[in-house]
Amino acid sequence: MRPLNEATLQLVRSFEGLYLEAYKDEKGVWTIGYGHTGYDIAGGAVTAGRKLANQEEAEQLLRVDLENVAKDVAKLLLSRPQAELNDNQFGALVSFAFNLGIGNLEKSTLLRRLNARDYLGTVPEFAKWNRCEGKVLRGLTRRRTAEAALFCSFPTPVSIAA
To answer: Model pTM?
Structure first.
């Protein structure tokens, strides 16, 4: 499995925010941690009154959630684009799918353009996904802009000690 880089984790953390107590999001879905909405072994389903012990627990949930989304994203990519994407590009797709659901990525023109290796045509497709129930949301517009910027950026080089 392709590991996610720190730039991806930072982007998701910054837009999801940290909530140690469950709350309902804009669509009425119970959420906790950094955007966790599903089941997990330790705590079961996210429901009213659920609390996390600390930021580390939220971080663990986030990493498991993003690993699962990354596996699903990888399955949607044709082999050549998957091999050609840098870590930031892949991370932008994972953030997109984590926020909107893998089904929305699967049916998107963004994915069709990406799999056709139309990388320049992929970038403006992020901006089209800034609505919730037909209404443009400022937060979604900002997130799609950040994902597109991550997609267009080169990963930070890692220095290797001699």
So the answer is: 0.92
